[in-house]
């Protein structure tokens, strides 16, 4: 649809963009990224014909841009500039109607029913019908932006060029506008070329991206290729991290502010064991990975609650009930990893392992009423019961994602071995149990202090986690069994 070959542009002999080549397919949403002054607007102006290219060629639908008359070009291509100047006081409707100009024929440029219908349709699509009779100077910046988009759409272009279209728009309108553009690319084969400053919006909506730096192409390709931590850091000259969108396979970039991390060393003194629950109140937020009833997955939490419930507890609405329980006791659910156990909190076992440059606190409650051999669990009915072994591993150190997951593996292997050595059997299969049906785990780290890259069994961290979980789990099983025998 659009072919840009070795294009160079300048202002009064001063280069602004050089050697730019890329191709945009029909129906693509193509994003142009780059820091301030990197040549994005200059490139868009050369494509729209507003600024002449010094060298290279730009063709649209296989025909050089220079061979198009201005009316022909306007029928094919519409532009939504970064800043629109309001030289006349038009109404919203009049402003949108101007978009029909390239399609009007005859000396009198008569207004047809088709023109009327299209103006209505685009005002509907951009949500500006209610502003129809307002003067442009009397509406907000975000509303003006939507009017200019409607005007561009009224042109019925095959290619839409946008310079920062979400500028001035609130969150909902940013999403609405980009949802609309995406829909038009899919349903009407509209080709969209847009400049973005918001890398995350570009990643969410664009099929491909072009990253400019100092007037040249730094990278181009799918969002996952272009939005690499190193290239974004180098091009934008700032600290930035990359993570995955929680629901879609697209990268999202996060700014890393220059705040100084203060090292806090945690110990077992923050642990409270009472009749109702085991609580760890951390003075700082800890990075966590857990399978808690609240705070599951990856997050940052300060409170850790392992709450006793009766063994006949009804698990059907357990998440809401647990969140209510936590809030009533002053633990904000959004900052708390909450677990349940039928074991009495007094039977919790904890220990601290201090190594040369890091330390680990481990706390375990272990009820084995629902013991299961994981290799034979298909023979069990899917019944949820609060029996459980709950394992907490709190680490003074900075863990990689890899180390978090390896710690979960190491702790699980150590727990399985503890059950085996305590002679715990799966009641259905009669074989050695490897856990219980509703076990939970928490790995939490201060993310300050030494970098602990790995948590596998033979690493320094893995050795502490393995030994600690094994010893605490055995002792916790023995304690809860003793209580059962005496009851
Ligand atoms: N009208 C102009 N006259 C002279 N130089 C200009 C003009 N417009 C832009 N430039 C220069 O050309 C270079 C590229 O500018 P351009 O506007 O294309 O960058 P951009 O990537 O769109 O920046 P921004 O993100 O700030 O909008 C910059 O060095 C800029 O100062």
The total of helices stands at 12
| Category by helix and strand content | alpha/beta
- Summarize model confidence as the mean pLDDT: 91
**Rounded radius of gyration (Å):** 31 Å
Fraction in helix = 25-40%
Poorly predicted runs of 5 or more residues: none
- CATH superfamily assignment of the largest domain? P-loop containing nucleotide triphosphate hydrolases
Query: What is the CATH C level class of the largest domain, in words?
Result: Alpha Beta
Largest sheet: number of strands, sense, barrel closure: 8 strands, mixed
CATH fold field value of the largest domain: Rossmann fold
The total beta strand count reads 24
CATH architecture of the largest domain: 3-Layer(aba) Sandwich
- Overall tally of domains: 2
Proportion of beta-strand residues = 25-35%
Which compounds are bound in this model? adenosine-5'-triphosphate
Overall shape: elongated
Explain the overall architecture.
The chain has 487 residues and is α/β, with parallel strands linked by helices. The protein has two domains: 2-255, Rossmann fold (3-Layer(aba) Sandwich); 268-486, L-amino peptidase D-ALA esterase/amidase (4-Layer Sandwich), CATH 3.60.70. It has twelve helices and 24 strands. It has helices at 40-48, 70-76, 92-97, 113-125, 141-154, 171-188, 199-205, 223-226, 229-236, 318-328, 401-421, 460-486; strands at residues 2-11, 14-24, 29-33, 55-60, 63-64, 77-80, 159-163, 191-195, 208-213, 216-221, 240-244, 251-255, 271-273, 277-290, 297-308, 336-341, 349-354, 359-366, 371-372, 389-396, 398-399, 435-436, 440-445, 451-452. Strands 13, 14, 15, 16, 17, 18, 20 and 23 form an eight-stranded mixed sheet that branches. A six-stranded mixed sheet has the order 6-7-8-3-9-10, sandwiched between helices. Strands 2-1-4-5 form a four-stranded antiparallel sheet, covered by helices on one side. The longest helix has 27 residues, at 460-486. It is elongated. The N and C termini lie far apart (80 Å). The structure holds adenosine-5'-triphosphate (ATP).
